[in-house]
Amino acid sequence: PMKRKQTRPARPHRSPLETSIDDYLADVKARRRAAKTLHYYEAVLKKQFLPYCLKAGADDLAGVDKKLVDRWTTHLGERKAMPSPDAPARTDKLSTHTVHSYARTVNGFLRWARREGQITRDLHAQQPKPPHLERDVLKREDFEALLAEADNDRDRLSLEVLWPPALRASG
Length: 171
Description:
Helix content is 57%, strand content 0%. It has helices spanning 16-30, 35-55, 66-78, 96-115, 140-149, 153-170. It is built from six helices and no strands. The chain is mainly α.
């Protein structure tokens, strides 16, 4: 009996855009970014940005223009959040912080592509401004009241040492 030559399954066609993304991720890895950072960039670029571009008919960087990138960020802002396997189903939209982070990741890729000469125009995703988070901070009067209630020098000293950094963090 003749032995059959084993063949690997045919690799699906990779678009030039996917190759560019892989080259960018290799560059990120070479710059010794944290593994979690690399994983996040890969998830955003390959699972969010690439499928959207391919569906829009842009299979290389020449097909990625400002209108496409703007439509992608708008799509993200309107898209429902994907539930995680261990969480209940969600019906809310992606947060502004998430859309901002995704756009920042794509902007890193587009800057790299320009530096590498893969695109010649200045192209970037609009990043929505995340809402300013209001912090509940201790007011001076509250601090003075705490200081007056301190029973001993150790407690007073602890409060006086911790108060100035708290002022900087809340500014």
